[in-house]
Amino acid sequence: MSKRGIFISFEGVDGCGKSTQIKELRRRLRGMGDRLVLTREPGGTVLGEDIRKILQSHADGPEIDDRAELLLFTASRAQLVSEVLQPALSEGKCIIADRFLDSSTIYQGVARGLDGETVGKINRFAVGDCLPDVTILMDIDPADARQRLGERGVADRIEKLPESFFRDVRDGYLQLARAEPGRFFTVDATDKIGAISERIWNMLTERYNGLLD
Ligand code: TYD
After folding, report:
1. Mean pLDDT for the stretch of residues 21-43
2. How many domains does the chain have?
3. Sheet containing strand 134-139, strands side by side
4. pLDDT above 60 (res 198)
5. Which of 164, 168, 160, 142 lies closest to 58, judged by CA?
6. 91 lies in a domain?
7. Does some domain include residue 118?
8. Is residue 181 part of a domain?
């Protein structure tokens, strides 16, 4: 069997503070050097970044069909898996992913209301057996998250969507986390940055004792 690395994904509603926590974790793992791989979705490959641009450039045009949107996200993901994630894991590297397949399960399958079973099948088709070992869910009330985005001056993108959309996203994530307690680690994203980072770090070092040096 090929050597297997560690795959950590971060998920949560827009404005939950994922990026800050990813930076914190990256700092703690800096000793890993190039054995640490960071990715974001959509993106992470040339094709994926092109898909990200397509999604962004259509934000002000005619609305992207929900199914087309799902297929664009999952196309980016499939490329990321084959070009970056699979090779990194087989070389025993540690991956930190800013969003992965759960984002489609929740945003497209729950909040956009596409058929959950179909989204699941398309997700599995895109990723095969490349699944996160641990998923950190940054849980926050969408109203608080929206306020944070407003303070950063980036709220307009999501202001087009009703608040109920983000409540569905939050509830969907919490339900998923309850269904897969072995994989999900849910943190209260309203805590102080340092406290959240410490909780995540303690969980990871407990699980992967010695593998993150
Ligand atoms: P991004 O710029 O990554 O935002 P953030 O840093 O806040 O996560 O944009 C990602 C947006 O795309 C976010 O609103 C979630 C959405 N998304 C989906 O709807 N489905 C997906 O599969 C993915 C990966 C993201």
Report:
1. 96
2. 1
3. 36-40, 94-98, 6-12, 134-139, 184-188
4. yes
5. 160
6. yes
7. yes
8. yes
Task: Quick: pLDDT tens for 117-162.
Answer: 999 999 999 999 999 999 999 999 999 998 888 888 776 666 678 8
Per-residue HEC secondary structure of the chain comes to CCCCCEEEEEEECCCCCHHHHHHHHHHHCHHHHHHEEEEECCCCCHHHHHHHHHHHHCCCCCCCCHHHHHHHHHHHHHHHHHHHHHHHHHCCCEEEEECCHHHHHHHHHHHCCCCHHHHHHHHHHHHCCCCCCEEEEEECCHHHHHHHHHHCCCCHHHHCCCHHHHHHHHHHHHHHHHHCCCCEEEEECCCCHHHHHHHHHHHHHHHCCCCCC
Query: Atom 25 in ligand 1: which residue has the minimum CA distance?
Result: 103
- The per-residue pLDDT for 141 is 97
Answer whether residue 125 is part of any domain: yes
Kindly state the tokens that stand for 70.
């799902």
Q: For ligand 1, atom 17, which residue shows the shortest CA distance?
A: 103
Domain containing residue 181: CATH number:
3.40.50.300
Q: Whole domain around residue 74: which residue ranges?
A: 6-207
Would the CB of 39 count as within 6 Å of ligand 1? no
Q: Which of ligand 1's atoms lies nearest the C-alpha of 100?
A: 24
Indicate whether residue 10 lines ligand 1 (CB < 6 A). no
The pLDDT tens digits for 73-125 are 999 999 999 999 999 999 999 999 999 999 999 999 999 999 999 999 999 99
